[in-house]
Fold each of these.
Amino acid sequence: MAVPKVCGIETEYGVTLRGAAESNPVLASSMLINAYVEHRKVGWDFEDESPGRDARGFAREGSAPPEVETHLVNTVLTNGARYYVDHAHPEYSTPECADALELVRADKAGERILARSMQASHRLLEPGQDILVHKNNSDGKGNSYGTHENYLVDRALPFASLVRTMLPWFVTRQVFTGHGKIGSENGAAPVDFQISSRADFFEEEVGLETTLKRPIVNTRDEPHADPQKYRRLHVIAGDANLCEVATFLKVGTTAIVLAMIEDDFIDKDLAIVGPVHAMRTVSHDPTCRATVEMAEGGRATAIEIQWEFLRLANKYADETGLELCGGETVGTDVLARWESTLTALERDPSSLDGTLDWVTKLALLDAYRERDGLAWNDPKLSLLDLQYHDVRPGRSLYERLVAAGKIERMVTEESVIEAMTEPPGSTRAYFRGRCLAKWPEAVVAANWDSVILDVGSEPLRRIPMMEPLKGTRAYVEPLFNECSTPAELVARLSS
Amino acid sequence: MPEREQKKKAAPKERVEEDVEVAAPTKQGEALKEELDDLLDEIDSVLEDNAEEFVRNYVQKGGE
């Protein structure tokens, strides 16, 4: 049975310390985050939840909080997001969102937070130095870093049935999720321009790895919620998107497909023979006409397979509704945009300039190629490819296109600015964020599924949040309004 | 999939109309071209100096 598609996006940003003898990315990432949070830093709680303990909730703990065993910066923001150093990148994990539109806003707020961090980092840097941040997924030299999506999934669903449908899903959705890049990497066949920056890096169909031998379907089983009821599908096969429509489609369509799998609604075998190879085949063809071999016989283009998914999704919407897929309003918009996007991709992909990243970037590169007569290997084109993703408002080519009115936006800038500090009201991120905003000194640590509060003279209290849709504005806003101390809040929650 | 087939049939007709529009340069087309030129000029002004060096030095550590 389908469960509500609570979702989030984690992005590892590219980072460069410029003007220093050596660019230390870990140090640069730490400086960005420290500069942003200043003294408002609250630690991340690394202790694993135990299933037996989280069921009841609000249990008293007599001991000190778990030691944070990392020297890397790791913090939680009042909007419910996690902002930290992962490997050698600053990573922003959005708060949990209940629908794709809310997630578009939360993800865009992450870009603004990184931009503000860069600005603030000048206080910590030597004169002449600056930190550059790019929302991309590869350096063009074989090094890739991820943008991961997360979706709440029913624990009862056999993982194998999820894998069978998600493989062709991830292969074919690239036609709207890719952010485009010049050339190929990781030993892939040479190509001028391809749809996805990530396709070349997938080497396995299914697996636990994320850094080596990357699998199309990742099996990490860390639900960050009641493990008896839920899985968290950790999706590593996606590109970082700047276009809001691309993020919206990426998340909205994937949520519907997952709900259909959970409800055993997919009555057609859409499996592709050799999905790892097919990933590249689809990405390497910006005309979207390349075909892949279907397990049940014959060949199909990514768009044809997408039409099958959409046909099923429309039927699913009619018969089951989209309440669990972000609600009817958002779900219906997802279906409409999905259809118009496939229609446009089939007729003329370039008509999606301003809505999909890869098409927008390709149009920009083509305009330069035409005006300046540049070959695909010209460094100026590579710079455009890279600077499209620069997060600084003045330097980001994507933002220049927004300013020129070339990009379709789905959320207002005011609401994005608000989402930098305000949590979404629709998930437990609201509880986490409000605790931090109201009693920053009392929040000792926080995690996706718990908050640890120092309530004064008593022992520290750990408040489990194993249900992603509890702790929402509707549930707890009155409590925050009525309680003047964290001790009062804990007392009210326990009663 | 009746819905889908219908769409597919409709597509070529609309495509022809588009081609006609593109074939004859119009005032609107020229205005668009000018607008694009202005945009590229503006982008030129914010591009990093020395493209070759900038791109060469852009090296990241793998992540995830």
Note: The mean pLDDT of chain B is 73.
Amino acid sequence: MKRSNKEQLIGYLLILPAVLLVLIFLVYPFLNSFYMSFHKWPIFGDPKFVGLKYYIKLWNDDNFWNALYFTLLYTITVTPMLFAVALPLTLLCNIRAKGSTIFRSVYFFPVVLSFAVSAYVWLWLYNESYGVIIHTLKNLNLMSDDFNIWLTRNSSLIAVNIMITWKFFGISMIIMLAGLQSISDDFYEASKLMGATRLQTILNITLPLIKTSIALALILSIAGSMQAYEPFLILTQGGPANSTKSLVMHIVDTGLEYFKLGPAAAMGTVLMILLLVITMIQLYFFRKN
Amino acid sequence: MKKVLKYFLIISTIIPVISFSSQTFSRELVVWSRYEPSQSLVDAFNAKMEADGNELRAVNTVLAGDMITKFTAALAAGERVDVVALDLIHVPYYASIGALEDMTDFLKGKDYYNNLNAAMLHLGTINGEHYAAPNNLDISGIAYNKDMLPNPPTTWAEMTSLCEDFASEGKLLMGWPSKSFGGMIFTWAPWAYAEGGVHTGLVNADGSVANVNHPSMVKAFNHFTNMQEIGCVPKNVAAWDWPDAQDAFLRGDMAIWGGGNFVVAMQKDYPDINMGFFSHFSEDGSRKSGFIGGDLVSIPVTTGDKDGAVEFINYMLSEEGQSVYINKNGGVPIRSDLFDDPGLTDDHRVFLNGGQTGHVPYSVVYNELMDPWGAVVQEIFAGADVESSLNSANEKLQAIIDEGPE
């Protein structure tokens, strides 16, 4: 008994640093932000309780709804692109052949690059005057000479989606690869014996068995997309005419540019609740199936 | 081994503490600046203090793009900042929330008080009390390529005529950074200010009424969208950012570019571009204008050494301090009595003259106003109707003004 208590205490002590970090950098800021959302919070002076004023104001705030709509549009368009690239490459990287490990590293490389560096590289690739991509497309007569990719919301969204897909498909790939490699070979041997084609094997054995990995990759991808900030800050600056301003961009502007901390905190809380609901729906769907 | 490790850990903990405490000066001023060139002024001040046997030393921190966020966080946390040089358009907000010390007596006691840039001084003034002093002046104006354009325009009609000539030859006359709200208010809006006068084109004199739909702004947008239609301005200028416009001019592909007095110093880096300069002008060319940009210097209420801060600012505004801006940084002085400094060239004087009738909007919610301003600029140059877009933007601006800061 005494030894068990001692072991428990050692266990608690070992996790204490991580718990403290979570409490200080996650729990406390969230609780503080939640508290702020019910107050008028000036830079100088005492906060003043305003109740649900900022939540009610959001209902009629066009900027908030436009930013939320665009963020959902971005999430819905970039997620399939990510998986359309990640899933086939995951299946390819799972092949036990010489050099497959090297390919896994190469595909994961964009993930470890700094986001700002990646964004500025793609900004140059897309540049109207100097960009390799735009220059090539114009030379192939696939684009008019006066085309600028940042001129419309749709072209801006496509440009950002391509960059994000290149940057982050590696994470989804690694997660699904881990799931793939936990599948026993017995399943594949059995399917071979039953005469299943490669496609039938993938659809009826591989994908169902990596369902939890796909679920995890999907949850992370959607949560990350809903909180998108840097791509739109660096590549589009929310333009043209605020049409690509994401919700987090709007929250950051409200809080750190306009110094309206109460309204920004309220929007942050709404975003968090939205993410929780979306995640719970996803988990319910995957568990049910 | 355990003993050796124990003593090593103890010594390695003590030494940094001792060495840190031995490096502090007896009287240090915490100075926060926006740009790297401010270091030359701080160095000159410290050299003077050392020569005078004064123990006061300024320690400069350059914050660049993070300036506003970090300064606001420092204020909220009560962190000591003795002197801060802020982008002047943010000063009304900080003065309105009581973040800055009163400098009225200090400034009015100076014999050069009436020579200080009035537009800059206005931004740091509430009810006649001064909370900031002009520090570093950045006036906008127009740079042009003399080889592409031997005779620059002097009226809007001449601009249109040149536009037709350039378009017929497939050349660019001008372009602007529509995607950059700050770039547009600095380098493009003064066309409207020159036409309509000061306090038009965004907000009125005290920032209480929005007027981005002022007739002068409508006129200016109509004029320049017409040039876009003619073809001497890129059709996709709505997507141009600051580097797009700057690069097109510095490559020699575009004849006219909106910039500031900082472009005068850039000439040595681009010897192939034979540059000339002129101020923004009204439709008939009779009135000039420019955006009065730059920094105001203030003493935050979190200062730990107000006397030292005043001494530093006194040096900044002195002839010696302003000479550092002119001769080391290639800048222009904020005192009109120093306009004859031999370090200033005729090119500098083009901007200084434009600055005499220049303008800078006063608003305590400036940052938030830039959102609808930036959006309406891009909408109009992407093809939206000028008047209805400006009217809609004006409603948004007024709603922001009416709500006020937090």
Note: The CA atoms of residues 344 and 377 of chain B lie 34 Å apart.
Amino acid sequence: MSETEKHIITEEKAEKSESKKLIAKEEQLYAASQWRLMWWRFKRHKLAMVSAVVLVIFYLVAMFCEVVAPYEPLYRDIDYVQAPPQKIHFVDETGKFHLRPFVYRTSQILDSETWERKSVEDRSQKYPIRFFIRGDKYKFWKLFYSNWHLFGVEEGGNMHLLGTDRLGRDMLSRVIYGSRISLSIGLVGIVISFFMGIAIGGVAGYYGGIIDNIIQRMIETLISIPGLPMWMALGAALPATWPPLKIYFGMTVIMSIIGWTGLARVVRGKFLSLREEDFVVAAQLCGTSESKIIVRHLLPSFMSHIIVSLTLALPGMILGETTLSFIGIGLRPPVVSWGVLLNGAQNVQAVAMAPWLLFPALFVIVAVLAFNFLGDGLRDAADPYSTNE
Amino acid sequence: MSEKHNEPILEVQELKKYFPVKKGFFRSATGVVRAVDDVTFSIYQGETLGLVGESGSGKTTVAKVIMRAYDPTSGKIFIKTAEGKRVDMAELDRRELKSVRKNIQMIFQDPYSSLNPRMPVLDLIAEPLQAYGWTQKKCVARVGELLSLVGLNPRYMRRYPHAFSGGQRQRISIARALALNPSIIVADEPASALDVSVQAQILNLMEDMQEKLNLTYLFITHDLSVVRYLCDRVAVMYAGKLAEVAKTEELFTKPLHPYTSALLSAVPDADPHQRWLEETVSGEVIDLSKEIRGCPFAPRCKYAVQRCHDVLPLLENKISNIENPHFAACHRSNEIQLKGV
Amino acid sequence: MSVNAVEIEKTENKQTVSKEVILDVKDLKVKFLTDEGAVHAVNGVDFKVESGGSVGILGESGCGKTMTAYSILQILPRVKKIVTGQVNFKTKNGSIQNLLKLEADGKEIRKIRGKEISMIFQEPMTAFSPVYTICNQISEALMIHQNMDKIAARERSIKLLDLVGIPDPGRAVDAYPFQLSGGMRQRAMIAMALACHPRILIADEPTTALDVTIQAQVLKLIQSMQKEFNLALMLITHNLGVIAHMVKHVYVMYLGRIVEEGPVEEIFDNPSHPYTKALFKSIPKLGGNKEKIHPIEGTVPDAYVLPKGCAFHARCTEMVGDICRFKIPGRTKISENHYVNCFKYSNEEIIENV
């Protein structure tokens, strides 16, 4: 090699030192963007992956709730009021096994002697549970009418897999309809928090100094106000005469008012530390404009952290709505949400005599847990470069 | 190593950078840290000037102020633009600065934090080009050119920084600095964070680039052996002030400032037969936030007399040669006999 | 304990050089098991440390020198790993123990740490706990190993700080680590390491993070401590200059193996292994004639995919033949105490085959 080329390391020489040739796989690794790297790390968390699947199912159900739910939320089954979940059978009285599960038409009667309510199955006719059956009519997302349901039984039978409430309404259907409201309130709240958090936190971190000081104190004041009383006050401030949809949006705004503070602090912290990074200084020195620096260098650097923060803030919003509606301050009937459903399970009598009314709580728990596990997995995967350096 | 022309391409005059010390709840300024205190030097076209000092000497701050990453407290920074005009960078506003910046670029010390890990190499090197309005097609071509120039395969431009070792990342940094074809490169300890044997690659590469592209380097480092290898002239800084400025060989063999001599004798040379550590300098660098009267090195200097503590020595040419002056800021340079290597 | 006790504990005989081997490392291997594969951090390392002697481990990052030191004191990272070999250490009372057989957090090894073998690290900031004062941290070692009470330990701490050259030790002892400068902290760390008069001081890049003049002060301090206490030094660094002046015997490491060892003058005058030669040629010199520097060709191989045969063969410009690709070279003697692991020299007496 000539004198002047002594510093050049050609590819053959570099790869000569590796015993195996894993070029294609390596190239994949070398050309992987931060999202790819995050995905690879995330895949290793089994719990987070499972949670992600669970949440996808929940949200699909919420999107298609009219199709998935066997009944309309307001439909009343007069014969089966405040009744426990119906049993699903695979074997009939003759001992024959059926692959397709079926139910008997069940009614509630009042035992004249013990004054107890009992469920009585009418064994004369089997109603197999069918998929993609035509049932009650509904308006899909208030856009068009249809009557396809994911599963159900034929005319004449009833299928209340989670029991009914004190007005005879199917709990399973109401839980499914409720998911749409409960799960989406979180999402809308998050979007609002996202923009507010980035904007305010970004300004605080980017400009520093007095502006940062003022914003910090403002945030601290906001979060020091006790949460529940403030929600209650704001919730009560929403006029009861508002239509349900308006109340719904009012609720999300209320959730976001506190929610953005957490994100703003994360964003501010990240901005402050990133400003000093060499690569940001390098960008400034080669003439890149400030706005370009924010978009190209600063934002992508903490996008992953924002996603994690948001994912972990969602359960808070879901619980918030559930709590407020449970107390009666948030959403009210006829709107169906998990919190509203739990409102109907508020007294001991209900819990003692009709424990199936608490099923919505189970769904809340699963959703919250799933989000937490997902957030944990994302957080562990979030900084794909932390082990590199 | 390079021809010296008589017009300086970069001239720093009486440069000062003071950082306020903020204390208390309202962060009011209670004092200043004199990181750079009245520094004057020139760099000539095609040469490599080494800026040497230990931590607290102010050498990195000088580099950042010259690049206008920090704004100077006072002083002038004259630079010769690509068109040949002489402008004071300290006076320019953002817009004017942008056009001047084309001619002076920086290489950073840490190869891991100076490249945004989330951007592919193409975008990293093309960033300066895009800031000046180059089209995507032209950028790709130029980036390929630059990668070959620094000894990397152009097809690496699709990769992200995590695919590269420290030495390779530093090459990418160098490619980025060369993108706009600057005349001056300010290199802030470009090889210090690298492994010993990789340092040689980067140093040779920089030498090569200087020859090929007629570059001028301001080379900041604390490693004196690198200075000897690469630099034509050396400036030694102590506590924010210049202690000595001279041609490399001259400074190493016949230093005129006690600090330079102490620095040279403190470096262990890779030769067990040489003597070392016969005398060490005691104490540590003074507190930069305190006002100093007299020479900042006086408290630690074994040649100090009363005058050294009272009167600040000026940086003056101590030899009769005007073509190749040897500046030193010491009252006693002509009286004492200092040891070099 | 009174102040005079410090002098009493210095060894009586400073004149004679003790040639007794107190640390004998044989075939040390450390293999980390990660998700991506096995990393052979240390791949068969042998060396000896004599009482009062000084030994240097020279190598670049990734050669395994730090892991070698960590395994002696059983402070390796707590991940899945396999450690084999022997680390035979002769304690003050004469018994010889294989340190690797001791449990990583057991009582036995804790009696060794600080009392018989001490270590100082590169970053003095991270070696000290930020929430305890210096006094607290030095006293801790004294109280554990020498059963001192708090007051006596504090007295001794002040004496130690004075010994290492910290000005105003009475005040410094109550300071927190962040209140001291880098050089002072490093001195305090040396004080802490020497508090119980260990037989060996392991110094892992002790001055890399320090300024040149401070480095000189700290290294001179280590040298004087060695003389005072007949302390053996095991110095780990990549800095050729520091090795040249601080140690008597050098081991050159590359990719987990020792490739050359010998007296320091021999290694510098007559480097034999191609890696050692290439390393010397790639570093600019401060004095002497100005020579062109030549980087070592190639790059360090991936830690997960170790080359077969000689670790350096892929980058070697003096390969003897195919044997370098497939066989690991044994130890060959070049001259008195100077050994090299390279097939270029193995026509001469072959001592051992790995």
Note: The two ends of chain C are 51 Å apart (CA to CA).
